[in-house]
Amino acid sequence: MNEQEETRRRGFWRDNSLTLAFGGAFVLVLAGQAVAGHAGFNEGLAVDGMQQLTLGEYLMSSDFAVDVTENWQSEFLQFSLYILGTVWLLQRGSPESKKLHKAGTESDREQRVGDHADADSPRWARTTDWRQHLYSRSLGTVMGLLFLLSWLAQSIAGTAAYNEQQLRDLLAPVSWAAYLASADFWNRSLQNWQSELLAVAAMAILSVYLRLRGSPESKPVGAPHTSTGVEG
């Protein structure tokens, strides 16, 4: 490998380190959850005098699927609400908020779309038709769809897991529609939603008064508490 290729390789890892680091951590944590969840699930089976599952069988089970998807949907909900909410909602002094005079979708000039786009702006941002309209809402749309899809997956996997437990208890299984109205489904959903909403609210208000030097999620250390929409 010559020096230019080595520099390019190092540049790739540096330029994408945030995504790569969190993506790698996600895989490791998911693997840890699989191992711990498998052990806990088999403990429950042993108590009930039932045959235990291999790790591969557990990974294909509805119990593992519902545990994973219920966490995914709550995270996508958090970011969907945050992305959409921060268009209009403000918090004086927080770097997580826009400047107080910029509430709303802002002008074409501020957003650099259509006739105000730069030469290197995304191609759809330079248009003035439906493509710009779609692209200007693409992040919120995709995050919202990911939330709905993961919530749907949770409901399907949850129905299967719930019915497995029903059969173990010699009770009749329920339909998907009935499970959507059940306490189990809403308990799984709401216990995750409340934690995500609390985390967003805490981040918004704590970042008014507290700092982390060098983080774009924090204001500069010396910025006044009233500075809004200013990142370090």
Q: Output the radius of gyration.
A: 23 Å
C-alpha end-to-end distance: 37 Å
Oligomer status: single chain
One letter per element, helices H and strands E, the order comes to HHHHHHHHH
Structural class: mainly alpha
Strand coverage percent? under 5%
What is the average of the pLDDT values? 91
Largest sheet: none
Helix content: 55-70%
Shape: globular
- How many domains make up the 3D coordinates? 2
Treating each run of at least 4 consecutive H or I residues as one helix, how many helices?
Answer: 9
- Tell me how many strands there are: 0
Low-confidence stretches: none
Descriptive account of the structure:
The protein folds into two domains: 60 residues; 162 residues, no CATH class. The protein is mainly alpha-helical and 232 residues long.
